[in-house]
Amino acid sequence: MAVMEQNAAKPQGGAFSDGVRLYVWAIVILVIAELIGAISIKAGHGKIVLLPMVWALLLGAALGLSQARLPRFAQIDLPMQHRAAAILQPALLLFVAKLGLLVGGSLPKLVAAGWALVFQEFGHFVGTIILGLPVALMLGIKREAIGATFSVGREPSLAIIGEKYGFDSPEGRGVLAEYLTGTIFGAVFISLFAGFVASLNLFHPHSLAMGAGVGSGSMMAAAAGAIAAQQTPEVAKEVATFAAASNLITTTIGTYFTLFISLPLAVWGYRVMEPVLGRMSRRGRANAEAAAVADAEAAKELKQASKAHTVEMNFGARLFAWVFSGALALIGNSLAFKTPFLDGVPGMLIIIGAVLVGEALYYVTRRKVPAVCWVSLIAMFLTSPAFPFAPVVEQFTGKINFLALVTPMLTYAGLSVAKDVPAFRRLGWRIVIVSFLANAGTFLGAAIIAEFFHV
What we know:
This protein is mainly α.
Protein backbone atom coordinates (compact mmCIF):
# COMPACT_ATOMS: atom_id res chain seq x y z
CA MET A 1 0.00 0.00 0.00
CA ALA A 2 1.36 3.40 -1.00
CA VAL A 3 1.38 5.25 2.28
CA MET A 4 3.77 8.01 3.31
CA GLU A 5 4.65 8.44 6.96
CA GLN A 6 6.31 11.73 7.83
CA ASN A 7 9.01 11.76 10.49
CA ALA A 8 8.00 8.29 11.63
CA ALA A 9 10.69 6.15 13.15
CA LYS A 10 11.04 2.99 11.13
CA PRO A 11 11.23 -0.01 13.42
CA GLN A 12 13.86 -2.51 12.45
CA GLY A 13 13.47 -6.24 12.22
CA GLY A 14 10.34 -8.33 12.22
CA ALA A 15 9.02 -10.85 9.76
CA PHE A 16 6.50 -8.51 8.17
CA SER A 17 6.51 -4.91 7.07
CA ASP A 18 4.10 -2.64 8.96
CA GLY A 19 1.58 -2.65 6.11
CA VAL A 20 1.50 -6.40 5.58
CA ARG A 21 1.32 -7.06 9.33
CA LEU A 22 -1.62 -4.67 9.69
CA TYR A 23 -3.57 -6.32 6.88
CA VAL A 24 -2.84 -9.82 8.16
CA TRP A 25 -4.13 -8.88 11.61
CA ALA A 26 -7.21 -7.25 10.06
CA ILE A 27 -8.08 -10.49 8.29
CA VAL A 28 -7.46 -12.58 11.41
CA ILE A 29 -9.56 -10.32 13.62
CA LEU A 30 -12.43 -10.16 11.15
CA VAL A 31 -12.58 -13.93 10.74
CA ILE A 32 -12.50 -14.51 14.51
CA ALA A 33 -15.20 -11.89 15.08
CA GLU A 34 -17.50 -13.38 12.45
CA LEU A 35 -16.95 -16.91 13.78
CA ILE A 36 -17.89 -15.76 17.31
CA GLY A 37 -21.07 -14.30 15.83
CA ALA A 38 -23.82 -12.46 17.66
CA ILE A 39 -24.33 -13.09 21.37
CA SER A 40 -27.48 -11.85 23.11
CA ILE A 41 -27.66 -11.06 26.81
CA LYS A 42 -31.13 -10.57 28.25
CA ALA A 43 -31.67 -7.40 30.30
CA GLY A 44 -35.26 -6.88 31.37
CA HIS A 45 -37.54 -6.33 28.39
CA GLY A 46 -34.56 -5.70 26.16
CA LYS A 47 -31.25 -7.30 25.54
CA ILE A 48 -27.63 -6.43 24.82
CA VAL A 49 -26.61 -7.78 21.43
CA LEU A 50 -22.88 -8.17 20.94
CA LEU A 51 -22.51 -8.35 17.16
CA PRO A 52 -19.36 -9.39 15.25
CA MET A 53 -18.49 -5.71 14.73
CA VAL A 54 -18.24 -5.29 18.51
CA TRP A 55 -15.94 -8.29 18.80
CA ALA A 56 -13.79 -6.88 15.97
CA LEU A 57 -13.45 -3.56 17.77
CA LEU A 58 -12.63 -5.18 21.12
CA LEU A 59 -10.13 -7.63 19.61
CA GLY A 60 -8.38 -4.86 17.70
CA ALA A 61 -8.24 -2.66 20.79
CA ALA A 62 -6.90 -5.52 22.93
CA LEU A 63 -4.19 -6.21 20.36
CA GLY A 64 -3.10 -2.58 20.32
CA LEU A 65 -3.13 -2.24 24.10
CA SER A 66 -1.06 -5.40 24.60
CA GLN A 67 1.54 -4.63 21.93
CA ALA A 68 4.31 -4.24 24.52
CA ARG A 69 3.78 -7.86 25.63
CA LEU A 70 3.83 -9.34 22.13
CA PRO A 71 6.84 -10.37 20.02
CA ARG A 72 7.93 -7.79 17.46
CA PHE A 73 6.41 -9.57 14.45
CA ALA A 74 2.95 -9.48 16.09
CA GLN A 75 2.93 -5.94 17.48
CA ILE A 76 0.53 -3.18 16.43
CA ASP A 77 2.70 -0.24 17.43
CA LEU A 78 1.88 3.49 17.40
CA PRO A 79 2.74 4.16 13.71
CA MET A 80 0.57 1.21 12.69
CA GLN A 81 -2.28 2.46 14.86
CA HIS A 82 -2.14 5.78 13.00
CA ARG A 83 -2.06 3.87 9.71
CA ALA A 84 -5.22 1.98 10.72
CA ALA A 85 -6.93 5.26 11.60
CA ALA A 86 -6.03 6.65 8.17
CA ILE A 87 -7.58 3.62 6.44
CA LEU A 88 -10.78 3.90 8.50
CA GLN A 89 -12.10 7.05 6.79
CA PRO A 90 -12.07 5.77 3.17
CA ALA A 91 -13.44 2.44 4.39
CA LEU A 92 -16.42 4.24 5.91
CA LEU A 93 -17.41 5.51 2.46
CA LEU A 94 -18.21 1.93 1.42
CA PHE A 95 -20.79 1.76 4.19
CA VAL A 96 -22.22 5.16 3.18
CA ALA A 97 -22.59 3.88 -0.38
CA LYS A 98 -24.45 0.78 0.83
CA LEU A 99 -26.89 2.95 2.81
CA GLY A 100 -27.48 5.08 -0.28
CA LEU A 101 -28.28 1.96 -2.31
CA LEU A 102 -30.81 0.93 0.34
CA VAL A 103 -32.64 4.25 0.47
CA GLY A 104 -32.80 4.61 -3.31
CA GLY A 105 -34.82 1.42 -3.62
CA SER A 106 -37.05 2.36 -0.67
CA LEU A 107 -38.05 5.86 -1.82
CA PRO A 108 -41.70 4.85 -2.50
CA LYS A 109 -41.98 3.39 1.04
CA LEU A 110 -40.55 6.55 2.55
CA VAL A 111 -43.08 8.71 0.70
CA ALA A 112 -45.94 6.48 1.85
CA ALA A 113 -44.81 6.62 5.47
CA GLY A 114 -46.23 10.14 5.93
CA TRP A 115 -45.04 13.51 7.21
CA ALA A 116 -44.65 12.32 10.77
CA LEU A 117 -41.64 10.24 9.77
CA VAL A 118 -40.13 13.26 8.05
CA PHE A 119 -40.50 15.83 10.80
CA GLN A 120 -39.65 13.50 13.68
CA GLU A 121 -36.16 13.28 12.23
CA PHE A 122 -35.47 16.77 13.56
CA GLY A 123 -36.14 15.44 17.04
CA HIS A 124 -33.69 12.58 16.60
CA PHE A 125 -30.79 14.87 15.81
CA VAL A 126 -31.62 17.90 17.93
CA GLY A 127 -32.62 15.96 21.06
CA THR A 128 -29.10 14.59 21.50
CA ILE A 129 -27.74 18.14 21.73
CA ILE A 130 -30.49 19.53 23.98
CA LEU A 131 -29.92 16.91 26.69
CA GLY A 132 -26.33 15.88 26.13
CA LEU A 133 -24.36 19.04 25.34
CA PRO A 134 -25.17 21.15 28.45
CA VAL A 135 -24.43 18.26 30.80
CA ALA A 136 -21.21 17.44 28.94
CA LEU A 137 -20.02 21.02 29.40
CA MET A 138 -21.00 21.08 33.08
CA LEU A 139 -19.00 17.88 33.56
CA GLY A 140 -15.92 19.63 32.19
CA ILE A 141 -15.79 17.99 28.75
CA LYS A 142 -14.37 20.34 26.13
CA ARG A 143 -14.60 20.07 22.32
CA GLU A 144 -15.04 16.31 22.65
CA ALA A 145 -18.61 17.27 23.61
CA ILE A 146 -19.35 18.25 20.00
CA GLY A 147 -18.50 14.81 18.63
CA ALA A 148 -20.24 13.08 21.53
CA THR A 149 -23.56 14.94 21.35
CA PHE A 150 -24.26 15.99 17.74
CA SER A 151 -25.72 12.50 17.16
CA VAL A 152 -25.85 9.05 18.76
CA GLY A 153 -22.50 8.34 17.11
CA ARG A 154 -23.34 5.65 14.58
CA GLU A 155 -21.31 4.81 11.46
CA PRO A 156 -22.40 7.75 9.23
CA SER A 157 -21.54 10.12 12.08
CA LEU A 158 -18.07 8.59 12.26
CA ALA A 159 -17.68 9.27 8.53
CA ILE A 160 -18.78 12.91 8.87
CA ILE A 161 -16.52 13.70 11.82
CA GLY A 162 -13.62 11.75 10.31
CA GLU A 163 -13.81 13.76 7.10
CA LYS A 164 -14.37 17.17 8.69
CA TYR A 165 -12.09 16.99 11.74
CA GLY A 166 -10.16 13.72 11.59
CA PHE A 167 -10.19 11.03 14.25
CA ASP A 168 -7.13 12.50 15.97
CA SER A 169 -9.11 15.66 16.84
CA PRO A 170 -11.09 16.27 20.07
CA GLU A 171 -14.30 15.96 18.02
CA GLY A 172 -13.04 12.66 16.61
CA ARG A 173 -12.25 11.28 20.06
CA GLY A 174 -15.69 12.40 21.25
CA VAL A 175 -17.60 10.60 18.50
CA LEU A 176 -15.48 7.45 18.92
CA ALA A 177 -16.12 7.49 22.67
CA GLU A 178 -19.83 7.92 22.00
CA TYR A 179 -19.72 5.04 19.52
CA LEU A 180 -17.96 2.76 21.98
CA THR A 181 -20.35 3.59 24.81
CA GLY A 182 -23.45 3.35 22.64
CA THR A 183 -22.37 0.07 21.05
CA ILE A 184 -21.78 -1.69 24.36
CA PHE A 185 -24.42 -0.11 26.61
CA GLY A 186 -26.85 1.57 24.20
CA ALA A 187 -29.30 -1.28 23.60
CA VAL A 188 -30.01 -2.08 27.24
CA PHE A 189 -30.28 1.60 28.21
CA ILE A 190 -32.69 2.55 25.42
CA SER A 191 -34.79 -0.53 26.18
CA LEU A 192 -35.22 0.39 29.85
CA PHE A 193 -35.75 4.07 29.07
CA ALA A 194 -38.26 3.50 26.26
CA GLY A 195 -40.20 1.01 28.39
CA PHE A 196 -40.39 3.49 31.26
CA VAL A 197 -41.61 6.33 29.02
CA ALA A 198 -44.21 4.04 27.43
CA SER A 199 -45.54 3.11 30.87
CA LEU A 200 -46.33 6.77 31.53
CA ASN A 201 -48.95 6.76 28.73
CA LEU A 202 -47.94 10.26 27.63
CA PHE A 203 -47.40 9.41 23.96
CA HIS A 204 -49.25 7.55 21.23
CA PRO A 205 -47.60 4.17 20.52
CA HIS A 206 -46.84 5.29 16.95
CA SER A 207 -44.94 8.31 18.29
CA LEU A 208 -42.93 6.10 20.63
CA ALA A 209 -42.21 3.71 17.76
CA MET A 210 -40.84 6.54 15.63
CA GLY A 211 -38.70 7.62 18.56
CA ALA A 212 -37.27 4.09 18.64
CA GLY A 213 -35.75 4.49 15.17
CA VAL A 214 -32.50 5.99 16.46
CA GLY A 215 -30.33 4.71 13.60
CA SER A 216 -29.01 1.53 15.20
CA GLY A 217 -30.60 -1.81 14.38
CA SER A 218 -29.94 -3.35 17.78
CA MET A 219 -31.05 -0.24 19.69
CA MET A 220 -34.16 0.11 17.53
CA ALA A 221 -35.11 -3.51 18.15
CA ALA A 222 -34.57 -3.17 21.90
CA ALA A 223 -36.63 0.03 22.19
CA ALA A 224 -39.43 -1.21 19.93
CA GLY A 225 -39.62 -4.49 21.86
CA ALA A 226 -39.96 -2.68 25.19
CA ILE A 227 -42.73 -0.46 23.78
CA ALA A 228 -44.57 -3.28 22.00
CA ALA A 229 -44.58 -5.42 25.16
CA GLN A 230 -47.00 -2.93 26.72
CA GLN A 231 -49.44 -2.85 23.76
CA THR A 232 -52.11 -5.15 22.34
CA PRO A 233 -50.86 -7.68 19.76
CA GLU A 234 -52.26 -5.65 16.85
CA VAL A 235 -50.75 -2.37 18.05
CA ALA A 236 -47.50 -4.17 18.78
CA LYS A 237 -47.22 -5.02 15.06
CA GLU A 238 -47.82 -1.37 14.18
CA VAL A 239 -45.08 -0.36 16.60
CA ALA A 240 -42.61 -2.63 14.83
CA THR A 241 -43.63 -1.25 11.41
CA PHE A 242 -43.27 2.42 12.38
CA ALA A 243 -40.00 1.78 14.22
CA ALA A 244 -38.49 0.08 11.17
CA ALA A 245 -39.58 2.92 8.85
CA SER A 246 -38.17 5.55 11.22
CA ASN A 247 -34.91 3.66 11.55
CA LEU A 248 -34.60 3.46 7.77
CA ILE A 249 -34.89 7.24 7.49
CA THR A 250 -32.47 7.83 10.34
CA THR A 251 -29.79 5.54 8.89
CA THR A 252 -30.05 7.04 5.38
CA ILE A 253 -31.51 10.53 5.03
CA GLY A 254 -30.39 11.15 8.61
CA THR A 255 -26.85 11.59 7.28
CA TYR A 256 -27.87 14.93 5.81
CA PHE A 257 -29.57 16.01 9.04
CA THR A 258 -26.41 15.34 11.03
CA LEU A 259 -24.20 17.06 8.46
CA PHE A 260 -26.22 20.21 7.80
CA ILE A 261 -28.32 20.66 10.96
CA SER A 262 -27.16 18.91 14.11
CA LEU A 263 -23.38 19.27 13.67
CA PRO A 264 -23.53 23.05 12.97
CA LEU A 265 -26.01 23.37 15.87
CA ALA A 266 -23.65 21.50 18.21
CA VAL A 267 -20.72 23.71 17.17
CA TRP A 268 -22.83 26.84 17.73
CA GLY A 269 -24.14 25.52 21.06
CA TYR A 270 -20.62 24.77 22.25
CA ARG A 271 -19.45 28.25 21.32
CA VAL A 272 -22.36 29.89 23.16
CA MET A 273 -22.68 27.64 26.23
CA GLU A 274 -19.11 26.58 27.01
CA PRO A 275 -18.00 29.95 28.45
CA VAL A 276 -20.95 29.78 30.88
CA LEU A 277 -21.54 26.08 31.64
CA GLY A 278 -17.85 25.15 31.50
CA ARG A 279 -17.22 27.37 34.50
CA MET A 280 -20.06 25.74 36.43
CA SER A 281 -18.26 22.42 36.71
CA ARG A 282 -16.39 21.71 39.91
CA ARG A 283 -13.30 21.23 37.87
CA GLY A 284 -13.79 24.65 36.32
CA ARG A 285 -14.36 26.42 39.66
CA ALA A 286 -11.68 24.76 41.77
CA ASN A 287 -8.96 23.95 39.27
CA ALA A 288 -9.51 26.22 36.28
CA GLU A 289 -5.87 27.22 35.83
CA ALA A 290 -4.47 23.75 36.54
CA ALA A 291 -6.99 22.16 34.15
CA ALA A 292 -6.11 24.65 31.43
CA VAL A 293 -2.40 23.87 31.79
CA ALA A 294 -3.06 20.11 31.82
CA ASP A 295 -5.29 20.34 28.74
CA ALA A 296 -2.73 22.49 26.95
CA GLU A 297 0.05 19.99 27.71
CA ALA A 298 -2.12 17.04 26.66
CA ALA A 299 -3.10 18.82 23.44
CA LYS A 300 0.56 19.57 22.72
CA GLU A 301 1.57 15.95 23.28
CA LEU A 302 -1.26 14.69 21.07
CA LYS A 303 -0.33 17.19 18.35
CA GLN A 304 3.32 16.15 18.47
CA ALA A 305 2.42 12.46 18.38
CA SER A 306 0.03 13.03 15.49
CA LYS A 307 2.65 15.02 13.57
CA ALA A 308 5.30 12.38 14.19
CA HIS A 309 3.08 9.64 12.78
CA THR A 310 1.10 11.53 10.14
CA VAL A 311 -0.18 9.21 7.43
CA GLU A 312 -1.05 10.71 4.06
CA MET A 313 -3.03 8.59 1.63
CA ASN A 314 -2.75 9.33 -2.07
CA PHE A 315 -5.28 8.01 -4.58
CA GLY A 316 -3.49 4.68 -4.97
CA ALA A 317 -3.51 4.14 -1.20
CA ARG A 318 -7.21 5.01 -0.95
CA LEU A 319 -8.07 2.72 -3.85
CA PHE A 320 -6.20 -0.13 -2.18
CA ALA A 321 -8.05 0.61 1.07
CA TRP A 322 -11.41 0.37 -0.72
CA VAL A 323 -10.51 -2.87 -2.49
CA PHE A 324 -9.02 -4.49 0.62
CA SER A 325 -11.94 -3.35 2.82
CA GLY A 326 -14.39 -4.62 0.21
CA ALA A 327 -12.64 -8.00 0.22
CA LEU A 328 -12.84 -8.11 4.03
CA ALA A 329 -16.56 -7.32 3.83
CA LEU A 330 -17.10 -10.16 1.35
CA ILE A 331 -15.28 -12.55 3.67
CA GLY A 332 -17.52 -11.47 6.54
CA ASN A 333 -20.59 -11.64 4.31
CA SER A 334 -19.69 -15.21 3.40
CA LEU A 335 -19.08 -16.29 7.00
CA ALA A 336 -22.05 -14.54 8.62
CA PHE A 337 -24.71 -14.59 5.91
CA LYS A 338 -23.64 -17.66 3.91
CA THR A 339 -23.30 -15.80 0.61
CA PRO A 340 -20.49 -17.24 -1.53
CA PHE A 341 -17.57 -14.84 -1.88
CA LEU A 342 -17.71 -14.67 -5.69
CA ASP A 343 -21.48 -14.02 -5.68
CA GLY A 344 -20.85 -10.78 -3.81
CA VAL A 345 -18.06 -9.51 -6.08
CA PRO A 346 -20.30 -7.77 -8.69
CA GLY A 347 -22.20 -5.94 -5.94
CA MET A 348 -18.98 -4.87 -4.25
CA LEU A 349 -17.62 -3.55 -7.54
CA ILE A 350 -20.77 -1.42 -7.87
CA ILE A 351 -20.30 -0.10 -4.32
CA ILE A 352 -16.65 0.75 -4.96
CA GLY A 353 -17.67 2.34 -8.28
CA ALA A 354 -20.17 4.59 -6.49
CA VAL A 355 -17.43 5.63 -4.07
CA LEU A 356 -15.02 6.40 -6.92
CA VAL A 357 -17.58 8.56 -8.73
CA GLY A 358 -18.48 10.32 -5.49
CA GLU A 359 -14.81 11.00 -4.72
CA ALA A 360 -14.28 12.35 -8.25
CA LEU A 361 -17.22 14.76 -7.88
CA TYR A 362 -15.87 15.79 -4.48
CA TYR A 363 -12.62 16.96 -6.04
CA VAL A 364 -14.21 18.38 -9.22
CA THR A 365 -16.41 20.62 -7.04
CA ARG A 366 -13.31 21.76 -5.12
CA ARG A 367 -14.37 19.94 -1.92
CA LYS A 368 -17.26 22.34 -1.27
CA VAL A 369 -19.68 19.45 -0.75
CA PRO A 370 -18.43 16.55 1.46
CA ALA A 371 -17.57 13.28 -0.25
CA VAL A 372 -20.07 11.56 2.07
CA CYS A 373 -22.91 13.44 0.34
CA TRP A 374 -21.69 12.75 -3.18
CA VAL A 375 -21.21 9.04 -2.53
CA SER A 376 -24.64 8.78 -0.91
CA LEU A 377 -26.38 10.63 -3.77
CA ILE A 378 -24.69 8.55 -6.47
CA ALA A 379 -25.63 5.32 -4.68
CA MET A 380 -29.24 6.47 -4.18
CA PHE A 381 -29.55 7.24 -7.89
CA LEU A 382 -28.32 3.77 -8.86
CA THR A 383 -31.30 2.09 -7.13
CA SER A 384 -33.89 4.84 -7.66
CA PRO A 385 -36.79 4.47 -10.14
CA ALA A 386 -35.05 7.09 -12.33
CA PHE A 387 -32.20 4.69 -13.16
CA PRO A 388 -33.18 2.12 -15.82
CA PHE A 389 -30.84 -0.57 -14.49
CA ALA A 390 -31.88 -0.13 -10.85
CA PRO A 391 -33.33 -3.69 -10.54
CA VAL A 392 -30.01 -5.17 -11.68
CA VAL A 393 -28.05 -2.99 -9.25
CA GLU A 394 -30.39 -3.97 -6.40
CA GLN A 395 -30.04 -7.64 -7.29
CA PHE A 396 -26.25 -7.56 -7.13
CA THR A 397 -25.77 -5.22 -4.18
CA GLY A 398 -28.59 -6.90 -2.25
CA LYS A 399 -26.36 -9.95 -1.83
CA ILE A 400 -24.13 -7.93 0.51
CA ASN A 401 -25.57 -7.35 3.98
CA PHE A 402 -24.79 -3.87 5.29
CA LEU A 403 -23.57 -5.33 8.59
CA ALA A 404 -20.81 -7.09 6.66
CA LEU A 405 -19.49 -3.65 5.69
CA VAL A 406 -19.45 -2.46 9.29
CA THR A 407 -17.16 -5.17 10.68
CA PRO A 408 -14.06 -4.21 8.62
CA MET A 409 -14.48 -0.57 9.69
CA LEU A 410 -14.68 -1.52 13.34
CA THR A 411 -11.62 -3.72 12.86
CA TYR A 412 -9.65 -0.65 11.76
CA ALA A 413 -11.15 1.41 14.58
CA GLY A 414 -10.14 -1.22 17.12
CA LEU A 415 -6.61 -1.43 15.76
CA SER A 416 -6.27 2.35 16.05
CA VAL A 417 -7.99 2.97 19.39
CA ALA A 418 -5.00 2.23 21.65
CA LYS A 419 -3.32 5.50 20.63
CA ASP A 420 -6.30 7.42 22.06
CA VAL A 421 -6.53 5.60 25.40
CA PRO A 422 -5.06 8.55 27.36
CA ALA A 423 -7.73 10.84 25.90
CA PHE A 424 -10.51 8.34 26.65
CA ARG A 425 -9.18 7.97 30.19
CA ARG A 426 -9.47 11.72 30.70
CA LEU A 427 -13.13 11.55 29.70
CA GLY A 428 -13.79 8.47 31.88
CA TRP A 429 -17.22 8.01 33.41
CA ARG A 430 -18.37 11.39 32.16
CA ILE A 431 -18.71 10.22 28.56
CA VAL A 432 -20.95 7.33 29.67
CA ILE A 433 -23.40 9.75 31.29
CA VAL A 434 -23.31 12.03 28.24
CA SER A 435 -23.90 9.07 25.92
CA PHE A 436 -26.95 7.94 27.90
CA LEU A 437 -28.37 11.47 27.82
CA ALA A 438 -27.78 11.73 24.08
CA ASN A 439 -29.62 8.43 23.54
CA ALA A 440 -32.48 9.57 25.76
CA GLY A 441 -32.60 12.90 23.92
CA THR A 442 -32.83 11.36 20.45
CA PHE A 443 -35.70 9.09 21.58
CA LEU A 444 -37.67 11.80 23.38
CA GLY A 445 -37.04 14.47 20.74
CA ALA A 446 -38.41 12.33 17.93
CA ALA A 447 -41.36 11.05 19.99
CA ILE A 448 -42.42 14.58 21.00
CA ILE A 449 -42.37 15.88 17.42
CA ALA A 450 -44.05 12.75 16.02
CA GLU A 451 -46.84 13.16 18.58
CA PHE A 452 -48.03 16.27 16.71
CA PHE A 453 -48.17 14.51 13.32
CA HIS A 454 -49.23 10.89 13.85
CA VAL A 455 -52.54 9.83 12.35
